[in-house]
Write a structure and sequence with these properties.
Radius of gyration: 24 Å
Structural class: mainly beta
Distance between the termini: 86 Å
Shape: globular
Number of helices: 1
Mean pLDDT: 74
Order of helices and strands: EEEEEEEEH
Number of strands: 8
Largest sheet: 8 strands, mixed
């Protein structure tokens, strides 16, 4: 007599049971249950997931994760590039977000740049360049508006006043900046 394999036999449908998370929003292993598949990112540690200022808009988004190296590419038709690893590329995009451990080397023409990590190369920001306290930007930099948090570093050939708000007849200000000169 042959034993029927349960993988190919008919199974009775199981009723769908919706999982409701605990009231405090944390999943713990103390109760002996495994965390839910849809658990929040900081569920086991008690930390809330960080909210990024890069919006999760309904556009195309490319994320280069930690320990990933993307080299020798041209990135086009990407609304948002999130760099958590290393990218060596040329890109024309709307938004770039370089995380604290992320690094970008190459050239980029974008609308908004948020730098927590490192950027080396040619950067043209049509609207707003934000360099956070852990950010380092080096190279030929052009921007419309600039925000540098205390501790942020900006070095290289800096050109201000580009973008939609700048007058075409006005000559842009060119500044040669070194990291030591930026310390105040």
């Amino acid at each position: 007599m042959a034993v029927q394999n349960p993988f190919f036999g008919k199974r009775e449908p199981e009723p769908f049971q919706r999982h409701t998370p605990p009231a405090n929003g944390l999943n713990t292993l103390a109760s002996g249950s495994a965390p839910a598949v849809g658990a929040p990112a900081g569920g086991l540690t008690g930390q809330k997931p960080q909210a990024s200022s890069v919006g999760d808009s309904s556009g195309s988004k490319l994320t280069v994760g930690p320990n990933i190296k993307l080299k020798g590419v041209e990135i086009t038709d990407c609304d948002t590039l999130v760099v958590e690893g290393t990218v060596e590329a040329t890109m024309d995009s709307r938004v770039i977000h370089i995380s604290e451990n992320g690094a970008f080397k190459g050239s980029a023409e974008i609308d908004i740049a948020e730098i927590h990590g490192e950027f080396n190369g040619t950067l043209t920001v049509r609207q707003k360049l934000v360099i956070y306290s852990t950010g380092k930007v080096n190279g030929k930099i052009r921007y419309g508006k600039l925000v540098v948090e205390e501790g942020g570093q900006l070095a290289g050939e800096i050109e201000a006043g580009i973008g939609a708000g700048a007058r075409a007849s006005a000559a842009p200000a060119v500044v040669r900046a070194e990291p030591a000169a930026m310390a105040a």
